[in-house]
Amino acid sequence: ARRRGFGLRGADDDGFGGDAMGPVVKNIRLILAYDGTDFKGFQRQSDFPTIQQAVEEALSGIYCRPVRIYGAARTDAGVHARGQVVNFYGDDTLPVSRLPYALKGGLPSTVAILEAAEMEARFSVRHDNLGKHYGYTLINGPVHDPFMLRYSWHIRKPLDMGEMRRAARTLLGTHDFSAFEGANTTPMNPVKTMYAVALHREKNRLYIDVVGDGFLYHMVRNMVGALVDVGMGRKRAEDLPVILAGRDRRNLGATAPAQGLCLERVFYEQSCMDRTLAALGRAEDGDTESLLSPKA
After folding, report:
1. Would you say the pTM of this structure is higher than 0.70?
2. Which of 16, 86, 104, 278 is deepest in the core (most CB within 10 A)?
3. Catalytic pick from 76, 176, 209, 274?
């Protein structure tokens, strides 16, 4: 999992070099959690604060050189994460196990490093993941929750959960999701597979969980917006397969706001994904305790 000098994918981009007796290079994976409210998304931008910038600057301070990180997901402005995964190339300046504590002082309080581990030399957070789990939170009731304003979408009108679940089932499986893609995006394969689109309710909180092998720009937020339209009677569950087949974003309603969305987990082992899918299935059946299991 470690080499000397050149030879690692991307290592030379991060300032490593020299001969065979150069510094030991490690491929290091970090798991991040963050409140995305005050950031313009994950990906670095020249004029706005981003998660990538914050983490790279903190790492550069530790390693005394420019460090570049690679993220598993490029979350949008205002979107949160409990399980974002990044990797970068570091040396022996600091034991990997100490990175979560060492980075604490250099990061904003709204960003935390949950875990650090040394990986195989060719491990890539982008290319080696099997899928991602996103969660969306709605507050459904006449009064908003002031403690959830940064983390949810408030819908006053009652939502028909039965119809929303019927509509959600039409999104399962492999489809061309062009109709659910945001405008002005980088072209990519619109065919994605959804393993779960699950809804469960706890008092006035409605949770929508989506697990898939990949996602287009704004795709989850557009899915949530469509499900809310069905729950409010603006659309029927039967409309969603027609919209999917039409591949036209103009047939959808509004995109759900960013603050309700959270990247829950990125999967690198099938067993972890299977446990999450099983827990989401039990939650839809009323067993919400299953979602609190650390193994889920």
Report:
1. yes
2. 86
3. 76
